[in-house]
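User: Here's a chain of 86 residues. Predict its fold as tokens.
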Amino acid sequence: MELGHNWHKWKEILGGAVGLGERVGMDEESINNAAYRLGDFFAGTLDPANHEQRLMKELWEEGNEEERKTLASLMARTAHKASTKH
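Assistant: Prediction complete.
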């Protein structure tokens, strides 16, 4: 599975997913839980395609569950913000 070698494109895809979740009525907690599950899947399954994704994987692997949830929430919010600038 290729999610994009370009960091900005990857953030745009993630931001679009967050926006879709909002449009279908998901609240922030549900979106953050989905981001956490995706982060866990990505960290355990996919080889990072760029330096930024590698850093995210390393942070994920180092963090405990609470820290991972925070990281997932921050990434979802950052990606959504970046995707709405266009």
